[in-house]
Queue: 2 jobs
Job 1
Amino acid sequence: MDKHYYIVTYGCQMNVHESEKIAGILRGLGYEETKEEEKADIIVFNTCCIRENAENHAYGNIGALKKLKRARPELLIAVGGCMTQQEGAADRLRKKFPFVDIVFGTHNLEDLGRLIGLKSKKKKVVEIVEGKNSVDGEDNDISYRTSYPNAWVNIMYGCNNFCTYCIVPYVRGRERSRRPENILAEVNALLDSGYKEITLLGQNVNSYGNDAGGAFTFPSLLRDICKRKEKFRLRFMTSNPKDFGEDLIRAVAENEQICNLIHLPVQAGSDRILRLMNRKYTAAEYLKKVELLHKYIPDCQLTSDLMVGFPTETEEDFSETLRLVKEAGFSTAFTFVYSPRSGTKAAAMEGQIPDEVKKERIMRLVELVNAQTREKSAAYAGKTVEILCEDYDEKKGLYLGRDEYGRMGYFTSEADRVGEFVKLKIDETSGVSLFGTIVKP
Ligand code: SAH
Ligand code: SF4
Ligand code: F3S
């Protein structure tokens, strides 16, 4: 009888990509994907702990499996990802959800196959390790990808920055860069098999190569990848403003394949808050980099991550965030309410902000960001943009894809366009979405 897997993913693109690796491992063991929980022989939760609500989500959904597990004791339930890697998390999980069979961490995802094998001999398998990754091993691409024509490629693991609010350095360990030749081999294989968009992933791609004594750098990696001359798009995330430098900007400007959309998370507009966050730049330094970016790449667009309610944030601090959002002219931004993470410096700071104040600030921030997004979208009306078609939306009956700047464009087509670059004349805009008609060449 066929065996089936069901994977539930929380968190960032790093996790989405790692779920592709989990899928690859499970397929190697003879499992096939199912979209229905009830039909699964193994359910894997790939968790996130960046904010409390991400954890609550996972907890709720794991808890809801108790019944299914009671009805079908042979069902395997595995929990992995960032949540399990936190101090004491494995014990907490064991107590709260005794029916979970396998717990693994962010450093031993590649061992999942072995852990499943172990489980057949043991009642329960819990393995959390520190500081190891595929980067230290053979570095084969084990991913089973379902995101054609887009592909994610990890260039580094971990983070050294210890922004005071952030749990990532604790659950992902120190920075480890993959060798450029391994990354190039993976990217080239993806392009050879027809992928049209590659997104390079790292917590701070700017520090790529720092752990290898500077033998290679992020700009040099970008230039190497762009030696491929066929048409494709190259994106990356995330770039920390503190070391977002001129050479990187030049590499983006020089290479047509690299999208002129830069995601540059600023977090806050107040220098005092930025200092408390340990972000290592001021608002003025940030805006200088934005200016430099526009100097080299006049048609570039910027997106960001913003946070409200960091400990001690005053109304004046918050208004500086609003001011910076306008000055930097973000085309859109992800907005977050600060969530204390146990073990981080900020969680122990005095002056935690009450929930009502956080709520009120996030609403005002979202309103401003949405207005800016709508305004930028409205400017698309009547223009012609190039879309990389990604999918067909059954409900809308429309094909969809994104332009270089990440705007979603919808259109009708008789032929299947997935994986093709198409030119759209934009008839209508709404929020971040564009609606257009194909322009015949
Ligand atoms: N490495 C990336 C960020 C990864 S986390 C960078 O440095 O830019 C993605 C975003 O989550 C962060 O940019 C931040 O805005 C938000 N975030 C991180 N920790 C948070 C916390 N404790 N509470 C609320 N938002 C948080
Ligand atoms: Fe977290 Fe800062 Fe590292 Fe980004 S750079 S992952 S925000 S510690
Ligand atoms: Fe990503 Fe969440 Fe981990 S944002 S790195 S999955 S804590």
Job 2
Amino acid sequence: MEKLIINGGKPLAGTVTISGAKNSAVALIPAALLADGPVVIENLPKIQDVDIYFKLLREMGADVLFEDDWMEIDGRAMQSVLMPNGRVKKLRASYYLWGALLAKFGEARVGLPGGCDLGPRPVDLHIKGFEALGARVENQNGVMTIRANKLKGARIYLDLVSVGATINIMLAASKAEGVTIIENAAREPEIVDVATLLNNMGANIKGAGTDIIRIQGVERLRGCRHTIIPDRIEAGTYMIAAAATGGSVTLENVIPKHLESVTAKLREIGAEVIEMDDCILVNGKGTYRAADVKTSPYPGFPTDLQQPITALLTLAKGSSIVTDNIYSARFRHIDELRRMGANIKVEGRSAVIEGGHKLLGAKVVASDLRAGAALVIAGLATQGTTELEGLEHIDRGYENLVGKLQNLGADVQRVSSHRQERHHM
Ligand code: UD1
């Protein structure tokens, strides 16, 4: 087992280059299977979720070449519609195989997805979408079988704004007969990225990035090249870390517009944020004002940064209320922040923070990906030493977190518990 040892108290300083977006990558890879030729995806983040997808595609018989930060995917040789439970359970976004296999073979048999435990994560909207397109869906002992003789375009209203359901319906509808309209669609930049890839493959998708998406089905999709957009959640994490340490960090390879809700919140508490074409500079301060944060679908404040900003707000003077309107139980980082001396209560779907106290180093455990990011930020902001376990969660979604932080001057090391024991001897 490995852990991070963080000796906090050093302001982060310098430049960090942001990787390709995790939540795009995990949708673009299955989307590529729909082409009748090779699709090259560039700017892939080096994270576990991408590795797992690579292995999944190999297991399913696709020809996949994976080098450095690009993958060439050729789904022509693929036969299998059946995905066993093993790897599928390791990542939430395996659910995109439902839409992709359904579009490709008219059938998908895939185990229910895994991923971070954020409380209930239903998939009813995905199923509703597939059924509207003419598929029959059965769930037998956790294996979903989704079948359609012919997928037919339909008008689909999503009761809730869902990133996953919007993308899955786009995938399935891209080769369906006729027109599909998704109403109340999610507007996240990752959805636009997937639509861009599919359109470059020859699909006919209009309106991605708005709440009405129109998909005119086409018979064939072809190979192409695509570069993934920057990861706005990784970027937001470094912005918050810069602020929490009172540092000065330039983020390169970002789309500032994708980060407006984070920029606005950091400015509200008193940090300086300067936006340039494809860079953002964050200048942290010694003290901050409290502020309330409510998560909502894009362009609102992202739930994926709720946990990181909670860590920052423990440093802001006064009461802050952080409400997660997307995942009501995404609060497993709170107990750990309390171990570090934070004064936080959870009330329903809100965390009430009495901030402005110094945090202390402690032994803490990351329960999920963004909880891990929150605890790293808290650890960087303390004067003491923090030991963080649960790194497998962080590895799922942050490329080279330790290296990037070290480049910014942080005193962070990844050690095996074994080495640690010797260290103490
Ligand atoms: C995606 C992101 C995740 C992010 C989340 C919200 C990926 C791989 N993951 O997850 O990082 O935290 O968006 O921005 O892109 N819901 C239902 N029924 C459904 C589907 C969703 O009730 O069938 C609910 C969810 O429980 C949640 C809300 O809708 O409360 C939004 O979820 P959704 O946008 O679907 O999240 P994911 O796509 O799973």
